[in-house]
Write a structure and sequence with these properties.
Protein name: Long-chain acyl-CoA synthetase
GO molecular function, one term: long-chain fatty acid-CoA ligase activity
CATH class of one domain: Alpha Beta
Largest sheet: 13 strands, mixed
Distance between the termini: 48 Å
EC number: 6.2.1.3
Shape: globular
Keywords: Ligase
CATH superfamily of one domain: ANL, N-terminal domain
CATH architecture of one domain: 3-Layer(aba) Sandwich
Number of strands: 28
Helix content: 25-40%
Strand order of the largest sheet: 2-1-11-10-12-13-14-15-16-23-22-18-17
Family: Belongs to the ATP-dependent AMP-binding enzyme family.
């Protein structure tokens, strides 16, 4: 039987499930039932999993909330979701107190020392007069009513325009639940370990309010694996955790690779990483030089899958496949239909760029919470469009060019920022970069690059443009190059291009 570890606290899978069962009884006493939503406003902590599993026992939807939200953003999610209860860390209350809906029970989790230390804050007790999650659930007997099939988590996808939308799956049948479990087991590298889950040791490196870390954390804990909750990603701490706990499996995002590779060689050589069996990354494109360097360092344990909250994982790629097809994100997983289509919905031949669409047969369908029209618009050629541009090669491997919304149209030519970013990542002195379109009176849009230099590196706009001019057509070379010490990021590792792009388009009639 596995256990969940957070700082100095250890809780067996059985104990966590019992607490979740008691919490389910408590939530039922508040009127929460099948189809209702529970908002989880927590960092990576034991109660995150307790509340998630409790909701599932009732047939309710756990709905993680990005705790970075402003009061306005939090109010929108609470109201749009129709949350019937809110579970929140004590130190986060003041930031959203005015957004808490009247009449909705608020269950407060004391902020533990490991989270306080990771974020440089004081450990916060439950405020007087508010309901303490831990003592509250202990006042209820384990849930003994018929257990509902959990419909899954509602994830609010990060929006670049307007408000985020909650992806709400239909109640799955037993067959659909099995398809989902099989898909996740393959993507997460657990397929060969299902009969011996107590041999799996993993670290949750990303925030569980994001879709992939949420699915990975919940699946690992339900399976009975040993799960270590990292409050906040730290590259050397991860190496130390791998060595100390003999970690076998990890789910990561590419920015974590970048930060690991930037550690001094002496630090990288200090830790024994030989226990690693399966490391998988997703959520954001991984520059080819970064991925190759990780495979050289950690060995052929680096894997990748591609998908979205709406589609689930639909393609997969091992280290060996990637080395044979550099730059690919993988080939269709069993049961997945992955195509590249033109504007009329026709499938394109190998090598031709178009919109990526996909679906996994037998997976429970979804809608957007309160917005069926948006769900209908996401369907193209009978499949789901995650919003990516790419192409398939002759062997069926998928390559992503960019997000459809990020494509730059300059003088009628389509320009894919990811192509330019891939070359910039190879330039000496470049730590990271973001490329996007800015207004141009003559061409409609012009290419702009924002570069984050390596510490101590000195780069100029002329040097960046000259470097790229030797690698690509002149119309793709950025007309403007800015430099930032740090690029704004979502916790998934994705660069927040909207924040970089907004100032250029402010006041203009264009979606950003």
């Amino acid at each position: 039987m596995g256990e969940i570890i957070s700082g100095e606290r250890r809780r067996s899978s059985a104990a966590l499930n019992e607490r979740a069962s008691r919490a389910a009884s408590g939530l039922a006493s508040l009127g929460v039932g099948p189809g209702d939503l529970i908002a989880i406003y927590l960092r990576n902590d034991l109660p995150f999993l307790e509340a998630t599993f409790a909701a599932g026992l009732l047939g309710a939807y756990p709905t993680p909330v990005n705790w970075h939200y402003s009061e306005t953003e939090a109010r929108y999610l609470f109201e749009n979701s129709g949350a019937r209860a809110i579970v929140i860390h004590a130190d986060l209350i003041d930031g959203v107190r005015a957004a808490l809906p009247a009449g909705v029970p608020v269950l407060v989790v004391a902020t533990p020392p490991e989270i306080a230390q990771a974020y440089g804050i004081d450990a916060a007790p439950v405020p007087a007069g508010m309901i303490d999650w831990s003592s509250w659930l202990e006042g209820f007997a384990p849930f003994e009513q018929p257990v509902a099939d959990g419909p899954g988590t509602i994830i609010y996808t990060s929006g670049t325009t307007g408000h985020p939308k909650g992806v709400r799956r239909r109640q799955p049948t037993a067959e659909q639940a099995a398809v989902s479990a099989g898909m996740l087991a393959m993507a997460f590298g657990f397929a060969d370990w299902l009969e011996r889950p107590d041999e799996i040791v993993t670290v949750i490196t990303g925030p569980m309010y994001h879709s992939a870390p949420n699915a990975y954390g919940a699946f690992s804990a339900r399976l009975g694996a040993h799960v270590i909750l990292e409050p906040r990603f730290d590259p050397e701490e991860l190496l130390a955790l791998i060595e100390r706990h003999r970690v076998t499996h990890i789910h990561m995002v590419p920015i974590m690779f970048n930060r690991l590779l930037r550690l001094p060689e002496a630090v990288k050589a200090r830790y024994d990483l030989s226990s690693l069996k399966f490391v998988v990354h997703a959520a954001a494109p991984c520059p080819a030089p970064i991925k190759r360097a990780m495979i050289e360092w950690w060995g052929p344990v680096i894997n990748e899958y591609y998908g979205s909250t709406e589609t689930g994982a639909v393609v997969f790629c091992s280290s060996q496949e990637w080395l044979a097809h550099p730059g690919t994100v993988g080939r269709a997983m069993p049961g997945s239909d992955v195509r590249v289509i033109d504007a009329e919905g026709n499938s394109l031949p190998a090598g031709e760029i178009g919109e990526v669409v996909a679906r996994t047969a037998g997976l429970a369908d979804f809608t957007y919470h309160g917005d069926d029209a948006k769900r209908a618009a996401s369907e193209k050629a009978g499949l789901i469009a995650p919003g990516d541009i790419g192409y398939l090669d002759a062997d069926g491997f998928l390559y992503l060019c960019d997000r459809a919304k990020d494509m730059i149209i300059s003088g009628g030519a389509n320009i894919y920022p990811a192509e330019i970013e891939a070359e910039l990542h190879k330039m000496p002195g470049v730590a990271d970069c973001g490329v996007f379109g800015i207004p141009d009176e003559e061409f409609g849009e012009a290419v702009c690059a924002v570069v984050q230099p390596m510490p101590g590196a000195e780069l100029t706009e002329a040097e960046v443009r000259a470097y790229l001019r030797g690698l690509m057509a002149g119309y793709k070379v950025p007309k403007r190059v800015d430099f930032h010490a740090e690029l704004p990021r979502e916790d998934s590792g994705k660069i927040f291009k909207r924040k970089l792009r907004e100032p250029f388009w402010e006041g203009l009639d264009r979606r950003i």
